[in-house]
Amino acid sequence: MVKQNKLKRSIRVILWIVVILVIVGAKVGYWGYNRLHAPDFKNKKTVYVYVDRDLNYDDLCCQLTDSAHCARIDDFKALAKVLKYPDNLKIGRYAVEPGMSHLALLNKLRRGQQTVTRITFNNIRLVDDLAERLDEQLMINKDEILHYLNDPEYCRSLGFNTETIGALFIPNTYEMYWNVSAESLIQRMKREYEAFWTDERKQKAKAIDLTPVEVSTLASIVEEESAATEEYSVIAGLYLNRIWKGMPLEADPTLKFAVGNFAIKRVLNWHKEVDSPYNTYMYAGLPPGPIRTPSIKGLDAVLNYMPHKYLFMCAKEDFSGRHNFAVTLAEHNRNAARYHAELNRRRIR
C-alpha cells in the first residue's frame, strides 16, 4: 500500500513537471515565434532598402531603422547572425512591406529576391543628361554609362555612332533590377529599340526616304521647335517639304545645340555663322544626329507627318509656344516682322 502511494505521488510529480515543461515550452515557443514572425516594421507603406556594391550591412541596418522603422533592430541582427546573413549579402533593392517580420525580410534578403524598379527618362537633351538621369534611378553611375556611350567601337557594334547613340533610347517606363550593369542596360535598350521599330514603322520611314536614326534626328528638331504636341506633325511635314526640295532646314534649335545654349530666346545673325554640322542655316539636310532624345509622340509625328505646302514657320507673337506657318517667303516675312516687333517690345535681346 505504501509503495502504491509513493508511486502515485511520483506519477503526480512527473505529471506536474510535464505540465510545467509544456507551459514553459509553449511560452518559449510563443516568444520565439513572435521574434521570428511577428510584425516589426512600422512603416505605413512599402519602402525600399538598398544593398550596394560595397556590401554595407551596417548601412542596411540603419536603413531598416530610419526608413522601415524597425522596432527591434537588435533582434533582427541576432537572427541575421544565426542565419549567417551578414557574411552573404546580395546586392539589390528590396521591398519592406508594412508589418513584415524579421524572418520574412531576411529570407528575401538572403535569396536576393529583389523588387524591380521602374525607370523613366524623357525631356533629355544630351547623352550626359541621360546618363545622369539613369544614375539617379539605378546603382550604376553616370561614368559607367558614358564609358559605353562615348566609345565609337561599342556604338558601332550597336548600329550607331557617338553622335546618333541617343536615338537608341526610346523614352518610356521600363522595369529592371536596380543593380543592372551599364552594358546590360544598354543591351536592354537595344532590344526595346528593335521592338519599337516594327516593320510598319520601318516602311513609313522608307516611304519618306529616311532611316530610323534620321527619323529620330528630325523628331528631335520637331520637339525642340514647339511646346504644342498637336503641331508636331505639321512641323514634321514642313521640314520634310524643305528636305525634298533641297532647301536648308534653317531650324533655330539646331543653332542652339551648336552653340551649346538651349536657353537662347532670340537667334541672332552671328549664331547663323557658327561653323558646325548642326548649323542647318549653313548646311543643308539633317544634322549628324539628334539634338535631344525624341519621345514616341515625336517619332510617330514624323512617320505620320501632315501633308501640306508649308515651307516656313515662325513663333507666334503671343509667345504661346505655337507657330504661324507660311507657304511663301513674303507671308513668312510678315509673320516674322510681327514676332520680332514683339521681341523688341519686350526688350528680348
Short key terms for the protein model shown above:
349 residues, mainly alpha, two-stranded antiparallel sheet, two-stranded antiparallel ribbon, 6 strands, 7% strand, elongated
Characterization of this structure:
This protein is mainly α and 349 residues long. It has helices spanning 2-37, 57-66, 73-82, 102-111, 127-137, 142-149, 152-157, 182-196, 199-207, 212-225, 232-244, 252-259, 269-272, 296-303, 329-345, and strands at 47-51, 92-96, 117-120, 173-176, 312-315, 323-326. The protein folds into 3 domains: 47-111, no CATH class; 123-196, no CATH class; 201-345, no CATH class. It contains 15 helices and 6 strands. It has a two-stranded antiparallel ribbon. Helix 5 (127-137) packs antiparallel against helix 6, helix 10 packs across helix 11 (232-244) and helix 11 packs across helix 14. The radius of gyration is 33 Å and the shape is elongated.
Characterize the main sheet. 2 strands, antiparallel
Number of domains: 3
Low-confidence stretches: 21-32
| Largest beta sheet: strand ordering | 1-2
Radius of gyration: 33 Å
Structural class: mainly alpha
Give the N-to-C terminal Cα separation. 120 Å
The gross shape turns out to be: elongated
**Strand content bin:** 5-15%
Helix % is 40-55%
Q: What would you call the quaternary organization? A: single chain
Mean pLDDT: 88
- Helix count equals 15
**What is the ordering of alpha helices and beta strands?**
HEHHEHEHHHEHHHHHHHEEH
What is the strand tally? 6
Q: Concise description?
A:
The chain is mainly α and 349 residues long. The chain has helices at 2-37, 57-66, 73-82, 102-111, 127-137, 142-149, 152-157, 182-196, 199-207, 212-225, 232-244, 252-259, 269-272, 296-303, 329-345, and strands at 47-51, 92-96, 117-120, 173-176, 312-315, 323-326.
